[in-house]
Amino acid sequence: MLRPFVLCSSALLATTLAYSPCGIQGPDYPAPSGLAGDPVFQNIIEGITQSLDNATEQSNAMMTPLKSNETSYSVLIFDANSTLLSYHHTADAPSLAPESVPEVTGKTIVRVPFSGLRTNTFRTDETVYRLGSVSKLLFLYTFLVEVGHAHWHRPITDFIPELAEAAESCSAELDPLTCPDWHEITLGSLASHLAGLGRGGPFAPAPTAIGGIPVIDLGLPPQPLVEIKQCESQPCTRAEELRAFLQEAPLEAAFSVPIYSNGGYQILAYALEAITNRTMSDMIFNDVFCPLEMGDSSYELENGTAAVVPGSVALSGWNMPLGDAGPAGGMYSSPRDMVKLGQSILSNTQLSPTATRRWLKPWAPTAVWQQAIGLAWEIAKWSVTGRVVDVYTKQGDLGMLMSAFSMVGTR
Questions:
Q1: Does the model's pTM come out above 0.90?
Q2: Backbone angles phi, psi at 311, to 5 degrees
């Protein structure tokens, strides 16, 4: 049977020239099954395990990027049906906060008493990490579970009246350096970092000078002298957050280039709440965590969490309240629960196969030719035996905490 091909080169010449066909992007064969019992694959897993063991030996601990005597971590590899590798390592005791679990494992019975926090009765005993920006992946999955792909091309002004009013009072057509064009910023542009907004949340006013030089002398728009409530110690209200966003100038016009934006995901979460008339914590808990039995995951810090806390609770960022910025970087989960999320994506547990394929696609290239941006995804392009393999990843960090999720999608 002939395999279909795509014509990769052509020439506007009168003569007949040879062409070079290339295969359709994606895997040549269906995803393998039975990897857990395959001897070749098991040799690969043993090699990975040995490399991790070597990195954690006392004599090598400070000689590797892991700095294993100071770093606690978990590494899990999975396919659609099983966990193929589960590796856990605990830093030396002096590197851990007193509130941390004494040992990072796939199963621990140690509980950490964070008082005054809502107790979640749907919990198990898995060691929990804070996800940082991997929260964006959980949020985007929740978005698709709730409303699918229907709203990506609608402007954000359809859902947030404060931004619709701002678009009228601050005209991007008259003042494009100061006024974001909210009518042109769609939900899809926010989800793919193409909205042209700044990276951070509204924690402080933008500087009026850089290195003693006024920003206007550097070609940047003038910054108004305004008061923006500090939101680090106590989360801002929705009104305070939006008021701060409205005082930030755009970095680019919408759909120009990808610019990573935590604030964009916070605004996108407000839109989802408006569409569904539900809170984010309600949606993600009842419609994602519970159906997938992600009992160790939470939108906010829960009482009794078996925590991995480096350094100290305050300095690590473990209990930093992010409030409405939770979809951008505030969630908690265990390695086992993240495997459940990945397996649900690979198995189309909650999304249709078409919705999943549509999600596992790039939206824009970046300045690095091997990388692209998707809906929450950071996509790496690898060349494997002459074929391009797209690896869908999401990385996150918050304070002293880091996390990463990677998956090779299938057609």
A1: no
A2: 70, -95
